[in-house]
Here is the input.
Amino acid sequence: MTALAPRLRARPRAAAGAATTFRYVVLIAGAIVMVTPFAYMVATSFQGQAYVLTLPPQFIPSHPTTANYTTALGAQNFALYFLNSAIVTIISTALSVLLSSMMAFAFARFRFRGREVIFRILLAGLTIPAVMLLIPQYILARDLHLLDSLTGLIFFYVAGSLSLNTFLLRGFLASVPAELDQAMQVDGATAWTRYWRLALPLAKPAIATATIFTFLNGWDEYPIALTLINNPDHSTLPLAIANYQGQNATQWGLVFAASLIAVIPVIIVFLVFQRYFVQGLTAGAVKG
Amino acid sequence: MDRATGPVPVARSRRPRSSATPYLFLLPGVAIFVIAIIWPALQAFRMSFYHWQIMAGAISQWIGVDNYVRAFRDPAFWLSLSNSGIYMLATVIPQMAIGLFIAVLLKRRSPSQPLFRVLYYLPVITSWVVVSLLFKYLFADRGLVNFTLHDFLHLMHSDVSWLSERGTALIVICLLGIWKGVGWSMMIYLAALQGVPESLEEAALVDGAGPWQRFRAVTLPAINPATVFLSVMLVIGGLNVFASVELVTGGGPVGQTDVVLSYMYTQAFRYLDFGYGSAIAVILAVLVFVLAVLQLRITRDRGEELA
Amino acid sequence: MKRSQRIGLAVATAAAISLVIAGCSGSSTDSATGTKASPITLTFWGSYGNGGNSTQQDALNKTLIPAFEKANPGITVKYVDIAYDSLLQKLTTSAAGGQLPDLVRADLGWVPQFAQLGVLAPLSDTMSDYKTLAAADYPGSVATNLYKGKYYGLPLDTNTRVLITSQAALDKAGVSAPPKTFADLEAMGAKLKGTGVDLFADSGLGAWNISPWIWSGGGDITNADETKATGYLNSPQNVQTIQMLVDLYKEKLIPNLITGNQGATGTSDGLPKTQYATIFDGPWMAGIWGGQYPAFKPIYSPIPAGAGGSISVVGGEDIVQTASSTHAAAAQKFIRFTQSEQFQIAMAKTGQMTVQPALADQQAQIAAYYSVYSDQLKTAKSRVASPNQSKIDTVLSTSLTPAFLGKTSVSAALDGAASQIDALLAGS
Here is the structure.
């Protein structure tokens, strides 16, 4: 490290400065493209219903109001739906990440009979169009007495996210240095200890990614919730928001306001977990 | 190259005494997966051989492979398959390339980094309903895109009726797909880039490698698992495109932009022809699965990936 | 294998298994309605939610259902609101699982479809007073419940399409009143040329869009028994009617919204913005414009008359009882209640038009434009009551679109559509 430092500094300052400027210009330009629709959604959510979706699009509400938010928050049982969504999503995310990281660990660290077959079956799970599973899953849920319950949603959300997470985590766990694993094994550590104490901590960025994705998918899931839930008391947020879309008319301001409130937890989860994306975590461990 | 980060030469010596362990790690996940996904999938597969009656208890008629024969003779199915294929081909590489580019720009720690990460991730978390509606407005006959290209920049002689024809409508749908998916690829690559040891990059720097050479020789190979994962996932996702098409064009004009899933959905949930819908789903699933396995095979030849 | 490892795995396995078990124990709450004569709960699915505008749902939940429950002690009605776009999917999956509600507010196009599947109870058999109740409703609305000689529901609310005209466009054309006939319409088109205002706009070529033209032009889509389209849909009258529209399209007096351009300005925006001179639309538009274009004063008038008069198409919803309902008698009580003046007028106040011509005058006092709709409804017809109705829709629009785009002739398009529809009618 110390030997390198002078070399790094030897780079001409002006060039480095220009590179940084260029980086920021690109980043900001890209960010504008990415953010515009979201900004429009925010603007519309503060717009009076009569002025929603006019052309050309208005990014600063001409008739600002918070009515959409008060209606969304006051209407139906928004708080209950929010809570239901939170329960379902948090539990299913935690379970899914746990179970899929265990599977990923098995695939990444062991050779065993049926390894390829099992992995391919998991992969096949990703290729089946989920819409086509709705009816069989509904009948299954009925037979398992999982209809109209949050448990049922958790069950299917966990199942639905296992393939992707296992596939994602497997690649990352495989790149955890074998030396450490072997060293721990020599010390008499069990497979569970190696999984829990070594693999998981070292795969933090990947675990964080899986958590962020699983949370988002669970939080936004609509078709299964629509299929399984009848009792409004068990509704989740996407169901409630879909009800704002009418046959002949939709109050878009209301839809956008409700969607924005709903998106806050997703952003929080993202902010919390993206902090684990820190370079050098793995490398540091190798040196240690 | 330092072997420390390479795929593990999985301990063969361990085999005798680790027989049950991997299965125990797999058991809970696989159990749930088989019950909730594979079993229903087999049911859907079975449906595809019937003139399937949805009512509980109704007797369905076994018609063998008729639904499959019908699909192969159905020009609307082939059109939808080609639309899905075009979408997949047009969106996979841009999403990966742009995602990687942004991830490289954002991997270093800086005060503004979390902010940028959130901004680039926003499209991923914004609902399809909202972004599709917005794209529809952007590309409307009197929308912002026509205004910019025609009235403002004078690049075109007249307004383009983007959504009135298959070709231009598919362009809009592909742009929407790329725009919404870039943040997702960025996330995978960000996570992967954290695993590239600085020591490797530094070593390459000492060897006098330029930034591009360093990137090609060190970074790209090190993030190969992420690239494999992404390419497989995006091909699957591309062929399964659905929500954006439903919301932007509804498959129109007159089915010209239907994709496999929107066509399947219409057959199953509008015409209540679940047998035919299932057959279409099975064809798509088999196609996607074969592609995924092929992709993994090809990449295994280079790395030591599991396929 | 070491102990800690076993514990870890055991915890994970237990978590997984408990998911299934918890579900097993956590259900069976809704089956409170046992064999006793004690309280019956009727479940009623619909989409009164109406895009976040809660007036319809409030009228139902806060006024009508309490009134029904008071008059019928021992029966509770539980209304479940489901997003309109998702209701068909939800009904389908629930039918597959044998878990349907007692009552459904069904789009009238779904009734023959579900009747064919055996999902619905034939009310004309099971309700002794069905004929009396049906006689009070618009015949076009009642007809939507017919499948193979039996009626599976009663009209709950209705609507139709009338001509809606923009005054500003009339001024531009120098015309004093909305077109009363096809000839008036064509004359107005000639005057609108070059003004930048389109004569007429619609968002597709399905049965809902095209039927008013066909019927008013003196043609038909099928024979009276709805068993054959050839000889009817491709009749000379229809060729003439559609040719008129195609000519207007070619003269750019009808925008390509009708051939499926999703990027064209929608009718609800195009009319108040004087981009379109006339549209066909339903009674819900008043509420939409009232909020969005408060200054816009739409003119409502009958569909322009052709050789067949002024005939529009029936829309709306029917109330149906599922065959699986274990509370048929109670469900029928509620169905009767929906046909009462109290129910019909209360819903009319929220924008749901009454299905009973006898209440039309009372309804017109709620809003004047209702009378144009109720007059139109007297002669309005229902679309083919076939389980394949949505496929027929697809056939119509996919066959007619090429004719509009000039890729085929109108008569060839109608011939093709007719033979495809023949097959669909025979198949059902």
Summary: Chain B touches chain A through 118 residues (CB under 8 Å).
